[in-house]
Amino acid sequence: MSEPSNISTQTGLDVQDVVKRAIELNDYSYLLEKVPYSQFIGMSVARFGDEMVFKLPAKDDNIGNPILPAIHGGVLAGFMEMSAIVQLMVFMQAKKVPKIVDFSIDYLRAGLHQDTFAECKITRQGRRVANVSMNCWQTNRKQLIATARAHFLLD
């Protein structure tokens, strides 16, 4: 996965300015377009009040098993990790990109070649560390295809 922390070095923009502008415009594509990996997988996000829903569109380049066809597990994990990072950046109005400390994913069923969605919940945020849980589904929120937990170092 491309290092999201390279936002400022790749674009010459300050991370805090990028986050602030995305929040002001209520257009998080502005933030996602600064991260090459999110562009590569086609990721998008919509915000509904305090809830953000991330979308991974059905895309041939994201397929890992062409026989099913199913989304590559690494793409799914990267999508969920990037979702957690963006959620933290937006709700913390981050000055820097949170650094991943630990990431654990449970694959529950095959992610078929169709639109996939994720939501994140910040379960604990301290001064230095944040814990985030993520759920990922396709056609029904109650039929999860993966769940994940991550710990991030906040600067």
TrEMBL record:
It is an enzyme of class 3 (hydrolase). Residues 71-142 form the Thioesterase domain. It comes from the Bacteria. It holds the Pfam family 4HBT. Its EC number is 3.1.2.-. Keywords: Hydrolase. GO terms for molecular function: hydrolase activity. InterPro entries: HotDog_dom_sf, Thioestr_dom. PANTHER family: 1,4-DIHYDROXY-2-NAPHTHOYL-COA THIOESTERASE 1, THIOESTERASE DOMAIN-CONTAINING PROTEIN. This is PaaI family thioesterase.
